[in-house]
Design a protein that fits this description.
globular, mainly alpha, 6 helices
Length: 183
Amino acid sequence: MLDVPFLPFCAFLGALGLLCVAMVGTWCQHWRGGFSLDGSSRTFNWHPVLMVMGLVVLYGAAALVYRIPNTWSGPKLPWKVLHGILALGAFVLTVLGLVAVFYFHNSQGTPNMYSLHSWMGLGTVLLFSCQWAAGFGAFLLPWAPSWLRALYKPIHVFFGSTILMLSVASCVSGINEKLFFSL
């Protein structure tokens, strides 16, 4: 197995995430006409940028927080709060991305849920919303008993990874769909 130092690898992943956002932003700015909030195709361009930034980059960073060696010892609360804040930021960007695409579709008279990408993306966002609410209730609120946290933790980890993979699959299918429709 490849032996790569963990923290430089995390820095590499962060740089790769920023590069993804920059490339999608450049694609939308230079080849798709830029950004606007007027209901035109430029309104739609917010959707891919916000979704990649939220569901791939910030959500991926939230997943990595518990893999950093500093989290393995010492108090867990600051890392839990950081994990929750990154996931909340991802949620806010995701909601803004959905608002942009629904506003664009409604302005143009286009049906909202017409493709596999639409349904896969909505399913991913719904799973992500449930995951965030359940994680907040189980791990950040003080009322949850330790047996419930222990029971829910492997489920939370499994669905966190699954949602991240679904996010990437939704992004790739959306970019492919947009490229296919522009042929």
